[in-house]
Write a structure and sequence with these properties.
Layout: E1 7-11, H1 16-27, E2 31-36, H2 39-51, E3 55-60, H3 66-80, E4 85-88, H4 103-131, E5 134-139, H5 152-172, E6 177-184, H6 190-198, H7 202-212, H8 221-232, E7 243-246
Parallel strand pairs: 1-2, 1-4, 2-3, 4-5, 5-6, 6-7
This protein binds NADPH dihydro-nicotinamide-adenine-dinucleotide phosphate.
Residues 11-12, 14-18, 36-38, 61-64, 89-93, 112, 116, 139, 141, 184, 186-187, 189-191 line the site of NADPH dihydro-nicotinamide-adenine-dinucleotide phosphate.
Length: 268
């Protein structure tokens, strides 16, 4: 077991990537402190972990609210006495023309994706300093390398997460607290369901994304979870301040297919 006895807080575990990280961390021996703003789905995920022999508790918490985060940290300390790992996974996004982005749209994304990451990180670090060790994994996105039209608040928040992570990594490197960003490409969570629902057909959606993702498919939440295990564990002991991609090659692709491909070889 790669995370045996480690106490891990994971945010946004009600579904998607966070749910998978909680499940895989518990399988790897971690004592999981799961949180989500939705009590129903969050508790159900923890119940499933416990039913499978894992160790997990659920704390209802909106990461953008300081009092909620204080309670989350307090519950982790009350139950386990320390925090070894923090995964800032809770995130929201939407696509809207920039001219139509109202301040409340901006705040909604920034408050969860960036402020929530700051709040959880600061309070977890105060505990990590007491034990003299910690690993923080901030779930970023490929949007932290390049941007998409219509996603300004999300892009800004996630670029901010990268800056925050690097700053924390530098400031706490000499105190044995590491911080890294894990940036997924398109992963088959709710967003993938929404993409398929909005497309003229599932086949059309698959055709488009096959052409744009070199590996030809969206990633699975477990493929993010196992990378998070690596970053949480001592296997990654020399890695801090990094932004590590798991994107099936998406950001390595220049353009999906040259439409006017020349048959000639240059110079001949
Ligand atoms: P989902 O929307 O499927 O799940 C996110 C979970 O976080 C939901 O349970 C959600 O609850 C919860 N949540 C949202 N806001 C808060 C909050 N303020 N406090 C506590 N919990 C909250 O997202 P994904 O699993 O797809 O994404 C997880 C992370 O991965 C996000 O940070 C996202 O930006 C990132 N990511 C995802 C990619 C993808 O393709 N799926 C690609 C790149 C990055 P509720 O149901 O109430 O909203």
């Amino acid at each position: 077991m790669r995370l045996k006895e480690k106490v891990a807080i994971i945010t946004g575990t009600g579904r998607g990537i966070g749910k998978s990280i909680a499940k895989v961390f518990a399988k790897e021996g971690a004592k999981v402190v799961a949180c989500d703003r939705d009590l129903g789905t969050g508790q159900a995920g923890v119940d499933a972990i416990v039913a499978n022999g894992g160790e997990a508790i659920f704390v209802k918490c909106d990461v953008s609210i300081e009092e909620n985060v204080k309670n989350l940290i307090a519950k982790a300390i009350e139950t386990h006495g320390r925090i070894d790992i923090l995964v800032n996974n809770a995130g929201v996004n939407f696509v809207k023309k920039f001219e139509e982005v109202e301040p409340e749209d901006w705040d909604r994304v920034i408050n969860t994706d960036l402020r929530g990451t700051y709040l959880c990180t600061r309070l977890a670090i105060l505990e990590m300093l007491k034990t003299g060790a910690g690993s923080i994994i901030n779930i970023g996105t490929i949007h932290s390398l390049a941007c998409m039209a219509g996603a300004a608040p999300y892009d800004a928040a996630k670029w901010g997460v990268v800056g925050l992570t690097k700053s924390v990594a530098v400031e706490f490197a000499d105190r044995n607290i590491r911080a890294n960003v894990l940036s997924p490409g398109l992963i088959a969570t709710q967003i993938w369901e929404d993409i398929k629902a909005a497309a003229p057909s599932i086949e059309e959606a698959m055709k488009y994304w096959k052409a744009n993702i070199p590996m030809g498919r969206p990633g699975k939440p477990e493929e993010i979870a196992y990378l998070a295990v690596f970053l949480a564990s001592d296997e990654s002991s020399y890695i801090t301040g990094s932004n590590i991609l798991a994107d099936g090659g998406l950001t390595s692709l220049l353009i999906s297919k040259e439409p006017f491909e020349s048959k000639s070889i240059e110079g001949q």
